[in-house]
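Entry 14. Structure prediction run on the chain below.
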Amino acid sequence: MSVEISLDLQQIEERALEQSFYRGVSLYESDAIFLPARRGNQLSAMCVGTSSAAYHVTASFDEAGDLTTHCTCPYDWGGDCKHIIALLITYLLQPEVFRAGAALREELMSLDKQDLIDIVEQMVTRYSGLEDIIEGMINEAQKDC
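Output returned:
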């Protein structure tokens, strides 16, 4: 069940240090957000970083409308980083650019077992180290059974 995502600029500004907020505004203005998507209660996108790497950013809203955010950048100075601020401002000002989709769990549940296996195998081929992570998760799941 999707909740209404309600944001205003003041709420976004209060989530960050002043410098991070204004850098996030600059990222928004320079179209640094790409591949924006909304899946159920979660916003996600990639954001151009200052290095050659882009960062993956997410913002998840719970049933009460509370917001949890995450970014793959190394920011650790309090509040949301500039990449998250850019994501939230993009959604506030341009919600129509976010590709709509069902929550990931719903989409995965709609696939048959062989399609899921094929997807996981493709991911393991593309992303170094993922096989070890999956094997660890399988071992943990088998312990719980």
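The mean pLDDT is 91.
Filed with the rest of this week's runs.
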